[in-house]
Every structure is written in C-alpha cells, then in structure tokens.
Amino acid sequence: xxxxxxxxxxxxxxxxxxxxxxxxxxxxxxxxxxxxxxxxxxxxxxxxxxxxxxxxxxxxxxxxxxxxxxxxxxxxxxxxxxxxxxxxxxxxxxxxxxxxxxxxxxxxxxxxxxxxxxxxxxxxxxxxxxxxxxxxxxxxxxxxxxxxxxxxxxxxxxxxxxxxxxxxxxxxxxxxxxxxxxxxxxxxxxxxxxxxxxxxxxxxxxxxxxxxxxxxxxxxxxxxxxxxxxxxxxxxxxxxxxxxxxxxxxxxxxxxxxxxxxxxxxxxxxxxxxxxxxxxxxxxxxxxxxxxxxxxxxxxxxxxxxxxxxxxxxxxxxxxxxxxxxxxxxxxxxxxxxxxxxxxxxxxxxxxxxxxxxxxxxxxxxxxxxxxxxxxxxxxxxxxxxxxxxxxxxxxxxxxxxxxxxxxxxxxxxxxxxxxxxxxxxxxxxxxxxxxxxxxxxxxxxxxxxxxxxxxxxxxxxxxxxxxxxxxxxxxxxxxxxxxxxxxxxxxxxxxxxxxxxxxxxxxxxxxxxxxxxxxxxxxxxxxxxxxxxxxxxxxxxxxxxxxxxxxxxxxxxxxxxxxxxxxxxxxxxxxxxxxxxxxxxxxxxxxxxxxxxxxxxxxxxxxxxxxxxxxxxxxxxxxxxxxxxxxxxxxxxxxxxxxxxxxxxxxxxxxxxxxxxxxxxxxxxxxxxxxxxxxxxxxxx
Length: 686
Hints:
Layout: H1 4-24, E1 37-43, H2 46-55, H3 57-63, H4 68-81, H5 83-89, E2 104-109, H6 114-134, H7 139-161, E3 166-172, H8 177-193, E4 197-203, E5 206-212, E6 224-230, E7 233-237, H9 240-248, H10 262-275, E8 282-286, H11 288-298, H12 309-315, E9 323-330, E10 337-344, E11 387-392, H13 395-401, H14 403-410, H15 415-424, H16 433-436, E12 441-451, E13 460-468, H17 471-483, E14 488-493, E15 496-501, E16 539-544, E17 547-551, H18 554-561, H19 574-585, E18 593-598, H20 599-612, H21 621-629, H22 653-657, E19 662-670, E20 673-680
Antiparallel strand pairs: 1-2, 1-8, 2-3, 3-7, 4-5, 5-6, 6-7, 8-9, 9-10, 10-20, 11-12, 11-18, 12-13, 13-17, 14-15, 15-16, 16-17, 18-19, 19-20
Helix pairs in contact: 6-7
C-alpha cells in the first residue's frame, strides 16, 4: 500500500505540472478573436486531424495513387481560389508545416464598433428632435421627422458596415519559435520580392512587421499585412485595428471576445455536449449574413444586377438566424465522420403591445418544422435511390407567410393579385387556392433523387412528394390548373393522370417508358436504342400514394407509382437500416428532418460530368452547388463558365465508389433554433 504522504506529494506535483502547463500554453484563439468574427475555423491539433482524416474512406480515396493526378489539380485550384487571402497574409496552410505546436485558426471578420454606431443613432435622434421642436412641429410630425432622420443615418451606417472586412490567422507555435521566425523571414522575403514596402509599428508593447503591397488597378485599397509572434502565438491580419484588438486580449478581457458571443458560445456548448466525450478535430462557426457582406466587400461590393436576395432575406426576418457552429470528428470507433451543429435562431422577444405569437416575424414565420416520431420512409419509397430526405413543415401556414417575401422579390404587391387572378380570371383555372389546395396540405414531405443512364447534365431525377389530406380534391385542383395550359401534356398510367409540363424552348422527342423494367442502381434504366436524342428534363405532376408528386422527369413518377413488393422498399435496405441505427445512437428520435444518402450514387452524376468535361452544364443539386462555388459574382447571369478541373485525370467511377459509404443526418427543432447531427459510415458497414 502506498504511503499517504507520498500520495499527497504526487498529487501536489501533478497539480503543479498542470498549472505550469496552463500557464505556458498559448491562449485559445476564441479568447483572442472579437465577436465581429463572421467565419471561424479552428483545428486544435493539425497532426491528429491529418492522422484521423487519412484513415477515413475519403482520406483513403484521396491517397489512392489512381487519384493523385486529379488531387494535385484540385489542390492547385484551391490555392488559386485562396490566392486573395494568401496575398493579403502571405501565409498558406502549406507554409505552416512544422511551425504549429498546437491550434491553428483562421477567421473572417467584419470590424465594427456597435457602441459607436448606437451613439451616432442616438445623437441623430436628439438632433432631429431639437430641429422639430424649433420648427414648431406637432407631436405626430415631429415623430415622423425623427424617424426619417434616424433611418437615414442607419442606412449610412449600414452601408459603411458592409464595406468592413478583415482576415486573421492565429497559430500556436509553442516549442516551435525557431520555425515560426524562419517562416516570418520567408514571408518577408516573398512580400519584398513582390514589391512591397516594409515597415514596423509597436502595439501593446509588441513589435509588428508591416508590409504594404503596391496597389493594383482592381484593388479597392492597398493591401497591407501585419505579423507578430507574441506569447507563443503567431498572429497575422490585414488590418491594424484587428491585430491591435487581438493583442489587447492577451492581457485582459474586453468583454467582446468570440468565446462569449452568444451564437458562438451556444453552438459550441451544444456540440461539445453532443460529442459526448469524442474529441473534435475541427470546430467551425458561421454568421451567414455577415459572411456574405464580408465576401462582397473583398470583391469590391455586389456586382450582379437585379434583386439582392441578401437584403430581401434580411428584411424578411431571416436575421433571426444568428449563426451556426459545430464540431467534426474523423474516424471515430463507430463512424467515418461524425458531426454536430447548432443553428442558433432564438425566438423573437416580444415587447409590450406586440401581440404576435409566432416564433419569428414576416416571411421567417415559414421556418416552422415540428418534431415528429413518424419520419421513416413511406412504404412506396423504392429501395434503389441516391438520396431520401423526409421532413415536417407547416406548409399551410408557410404558403401564406410567403406573401411579404414574394412581394419584396417582385418589387410590388403582387401576391394577392396573383391569388385573386387564379380564382377569378375567366380565362384562368379559376381555383380557390385556399379551399382547393392549401387547406389539404399535410405537414410531411419527402425529397427523392436518383439518376438515369447514360450520364448527362440532365441525368439526375428529383422528386418532391408533399403529403395531402384529401388526395381526390388536390388531384381535381391539379387537373383544373393543367387542362387549359398549352405547355401541359396529359398522360395516363395505371389509372393515374400525370401532367407533363414541356420545355417550350426545346424540341421535345417522345419519351418511351419501359414499364416492365426493374428499379434501382443494381439494374439502372438504360435508354432505348432509338433514343439517341438528348433527354429534355421537363417537369411532371400527379397525386398518388397520398402525396402530391412533383418531379423533374415524367418517368420518375411512373417508376414511383408502379406497384412494388415490400422487399423493394427503401426501409428494408441493409445500408438504410445501418444509417438509421447510427443516427438513433446519436440522438435521433423525434426529428423534423432526416436524411439518408448513398454517397456513391449521390455523387456519381457529378463525378461522371467532371470526367466528361461537362461539369458547368450540370443540373444536379451537387453540380449546381459546385458551379456556384467556382463562378465569380460578377459573371453574367446564365453565363456558362469554363470547367476549371481536369476531369480526364479521374479513374473510372467503379474504382472510386468502393470508398463511398452511406451517410445521414437528422435535424431537431429546439427553443434556440435547430440542432443537426449526422455521420458517414464505411462502405462495408463495419
């Protein structure tokens, strides 16, 4: 038995060592960055992240020799996309190799003094009040004058805030000071080679290296970079006030740290609890509206013409979404990838006299997604698909809550006029939308996707299935809407009327549908020999299986309404069961959304289009997302960009698909917004 005194000494030594460790460890980036941070990515341990990521199926795929030519091309493209940040800071992730001793963090910020702005508004109100009084205005006119003056100043302040942008990087260089100093020497040489002017300033007793690049014609202002190493932390930023703010936080808290910013703090607290002891390899936070403004500011402001959807969403109450943040782990005992996120959107605090009972205001009232236990796939959902998303939504209410959103997008009060024209125009369908349509909507919907061979930009098939309470009445409404529409073509199959809306701008060939064929990716639908013409993706609609079915392809509806044995339903598939079990273990129970996806099938269309060099033409969901990422904001609308990745370097898809396993996530509505949890499993489901 150990001597009690020795035990006490051991405990004392342990506590002393722990205290020393805490004393000399670099400060966490969340304590140094301000609450004006709009995007935040933190890697607590880069080596551990790499080790675990390389063990995932995605990591194994990227390290497969057959993928190396393409991976190198992607890496070059990413470097090009990040060139602006690299130019501004003169630092890239590759440069940090051997420099970091702990956390590495990157942030986009929108520096702004909220207190000063509030003071300016208050002063404007006081001045306007005095002017109204001096002019002898009555109370009502005075109030209107003050309100107008405050709005004018607020507009000016908003415009100024939207111009603010900054980028910062923090690297824990504990035990790597020599390497960090070598890196800064390299950064200095690179800046000087590009013609930068070097100088230095002192902030909070710390010497700061400053590099000012020659201003280019396309630059909004001169590009300036600031660097220093302080208390085992390498700090880089492109604004003096930002690096000054960070350095000030080394000595004392100013109360405006990122760690105390409510959306960030709430999301990190949720994710940490949901991880339940699993170490995160990456933490992230995003304030969506601020990020969009910062992104625009770096590109010189908004360039596209037409409706500014950012402003529309802001004015329609969607700023109730304050931010979203979470944590990701790679290669855990049970999952290839595991993630937990909180979308922080607390209910509006109603003041005296505000009698509204909705959680949010204006069009944001649409964001009502009730949790329900019954969120499993319907029996008619086929086994062979790429993606299945089911969700609960108060669609009756959402339809009418959209009025203010539609009006603002249109720039006029058009919503009621359209609804009335649909009902009373003698040349129209004469449908009472409320009585004949929205009154019969349920609160459940499903989104399905698969694809048809051969792969083309229009191969992906999508279907939205909306639960209806009275299918017969809704079908009558659909018939009334379509019968007099010259673009609608009536089809019948197994007693169901299907309406196909034809693409007026294309010559449409007759589509021969083989009703005897199977369904699923094990035996994809091959086109008939005579169908050499490109398939035109018209839309189609019908009511079947208790749902309003709206699809991009008429043959998808035909496949769905074909009778199928229970064994061919998605709910019986082994991979679906495995993902469902994994989600339940993460807390799935009563959910508002639940997704199941076979990543190999979900990515196939995009992958094949990359190989064909047709990625910019893609009409798949993933393709549209990737195209948006690689298209500049000042590109002309409908302009087809050039494919930037050389897909000819990719191997056959059959080589790749063995690395791509099933995945899923679930969303639950909570008082403060929505929680999102999910995972990716290995292909062998072990």
